[in-house]
Design brief:
9-stranded mixed β-sheet; alpha/beta; binds flavin-adenine dinucleotide; Rossmann fold; globular; 11 helices; 23% strand
């Protein structure tokens, strides 16, 4: 069994990075399986375990209906819902111990390689005495493949021991839904040891109502969409200038909000806004089905992408194949020169 630590966002939705980790766990189930003797049941758990190879999720704090629905569509067989006063504020030692208490003795514990996932898995490995691999990108019968040097190189490794503790490199795997399950929900209310609560989050800044306002996006006649192709949170200069020239709005993909590059209020798609502009200019967006669900009502679709095979280019009325920074930069320059 693989236990996946799931993060939820401020709207209670499963974080995109956690959806990736759940998909990775499900699609690599046999490679992550404990080396149990043929067919031997896992008797290490207090509660009866579903068949080996299953994916279970652990969620700390509020568990929304939307999250349960998403976890079901991501193939989770059991949700461990950790809810107690001691776990209300994030505390790596306390949260990690609560995860350790429900982790199998054999199998894998996995989190996405976000700052929180990295920190928690390090504590889990330390507390279980097991080995950990960070930034894993693939798993097969030969072991694990992980990226090092910021993705410039890869190394193969095998973790001995009964429990593998892993973090998954960001975007090593695309989130994929599957036949929905009916996950069993187990609620746990652990009490944390005093020494585990010495480090905790004491204040969180919440976005203001203005930050959450999506009316500009849903009412704009021209929307410039920006996806992972912009490259970083500093890569929006050209698209924002184009938004300004068109008097329109910026819309982004879930990768962009998931990485924290832009606020959720700008997200377009199944779990963002559905928009109906006269023109949608998708820059560096691949055209995943969940994104397309939000732009079905656009009258004209223009794609700017380096990949002519991408769904967005295939579905567009007009497409420009090229680097978005160069293409949008050139368009801005032309608009500036024509307007004097
Ligand atoms: C339950 C669930 C709900 C979801 N809801 C949403 C949602 O509401 N909205 C949403 O958007 N997604 C949603 N997703 C995520 C969705 O599946 C995709 O992962 C996401 O849309 C991909 O974002 P992207 O196109 O920005 O990134 P990618 O898929 O990585 O695509 C990046 C694109 O940029 C191009 N590119 C790279 N560099 C350049 C460059 N320099 N110039 C031009 N092009 C470049 C690439 O060729 C590629 O086509 C959801 C997923 C799940 C599982």
């Amino acid at each position: 069994m693989t236990l996946v630590f799931v993060e939820t966002d401020e709207n209670g939705e499963v974080a995109l990075t956690s959806a990736e980790a759940l998909t990775f766990a499900r699609t690599n189930a046999s490679a992550l399986l404990p080396q149990l003797p043929d067919g031997a049941p896992d008797t290490s758990r207090e509660v009866a375990a579903p068949p080996s190879g299953s994916t279970e999720a652990v969620v700390v704090g509020p568990l929304s209906e939307e999250a349960v629905g998403e976890l079901s569509r991501l193939g989770v067989s059991r949700i461990h819902h950790l809810e107690s006063a001691d776990l209300e504020a994030y505390s790596a030692p306390a949260w990690a111990q609560a995860i350790v208490d429900i982790a199998p003795e054999t199998g894998a514990v996995l989190a996405s390689g976000t700052p929180r996932g990295m920190e928690l898995m390090t504590h889990v490995a330390m507390r279980t005495g097991e080995r950990m691999a960070a930034n894993v990108v693939a798993a097969d019968e030969e072991g694990l493949l992980r990226q090092v040097l910021g993705g410039a190189a890869f190394e193969r490794l095998q973790l001995d021991g009964d429990l593998q503790v892993l973090t998954l490199a960001g975007h090593a795997c695309n989130p994929e839904e599957t036949t929905p399950t009916t996950p069993e929900i187990l609620t746990h209310s652990p009490e944390s040891a005093a020494e585990d609560l010495r480090t905790r989050v004491v204040r969180t800044e919440v976005e203001t109502a203005a930050d959450n306002d999506t009316s500009g996006l849903t009412q704009a006649r021209a929307v410039v969409g920006a996806g992972r192709g912009v490259g970083s949170e500093n890569g929006f200069g050209e698209v924002l200038e184009l938004v300004d020239h068109l008097g329109g709005a910026l819309g982004v993909s879930r990768v962009v909000t998931g990485l924290g590059w832009r606020p959720h209020s700008e997200q377009v798609g199944q779990t963002g806004s559905r928009i109906t502009p006269d023109v949608y200019i998708a820059c560096g967006i691949s055209g995943a089905i969940q994104h397309m669900a939000g732009i079905e009502g656009a009258k004209t679709l223009i794609a700017i992408n380096t990949d002519e095979e991408s769904t967005m280019v295939q579905r567009a009325d007009y497409a420009i194949i090229g680097d978005l920074h160069e293409v949008v930069g050139a368009v801005n320059e032309e608009i500036r020169s024509r307007r004097g």
